[in-house]
């Protein structure tokens, strides 16, 4: 048995992106855009027309391994914050959360923070992958998001 007390259950990464918050938020809140900047290379595609507009919405995503995830939006402030709990279709979310927070610095620069919180994760099958989700992996998504947002 391993001691997991040293493994943080809330991991964050942040960086400045040279784009305005609305442009960046649109890339995050539109699931069809997420695979283009996913640093975990876990997202394959999402059906069109799922742009998130509020708490309580659920969007679906096809993963690269061929399974579908329902993502339950639990935090939402247009242009500033969005968070969701993924689950298998029709199931209760097992308790891990993905959050994006945007802080406009000026018209063309935004501070973006990406957080993975698995402190409430109840599905033991997911613990290995949760532990492997490091700040470096979150930073990879931020860096790809920056590339896409700054190119548009």
TrEMBL record:
Transmembrane stretches in the record are none
Q: What is this protein called?
A: SRPBCC family protein
Which InterPro entries does this entry report, sorted A to Z? Polyketide_cyclase/dehydratase (IPR019587), START-like_dom_sf (IPR023393)
- Name the source's superkingdom: Bacteria
Highest lineage ranks of the organism?
Answer: Bacteria, Bacillati, Actinomycetota, Actinomycetes, Pseudonocardiales
* Species the sequence originates in: Prauserella cavernicola
Which Pfam families has this protein been placed in? Answer: Polyketide_cyc2 (PF10604)
């Amino acid at each position: 048995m391993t001691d997991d007390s040293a493994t943080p259950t809330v991991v964050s990464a942040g960086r400045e992106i040279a784009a305005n918050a609305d442009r960046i938020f649109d890339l995050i809140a539109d699931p069809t855009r997420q695979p283009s900047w996913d640093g975990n290379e876990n997202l394959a595609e999402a059906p069109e027309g799922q742009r998130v507009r509020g708490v309580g919405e659920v969007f679906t995503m096809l993963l690269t391994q061929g399974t579908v995830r329902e993502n339950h939006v639990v935090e939402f402030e247009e242009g500033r914050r969005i968070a969701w709990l993924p689950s298998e279709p029709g199931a209760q979310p097992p308790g891990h959360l993905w959050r994006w927070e945007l802080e406009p610095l000026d018209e063309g620069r935004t501070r973006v923070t990406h957080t993975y919180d698995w402190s409430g994760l109840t599905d033991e099958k997911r613990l290995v992958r949760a532990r492997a989700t490091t700040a470096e992996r979150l930073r990879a998504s931020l860096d790809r998001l920056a590339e896409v947002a700054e190119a548009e």
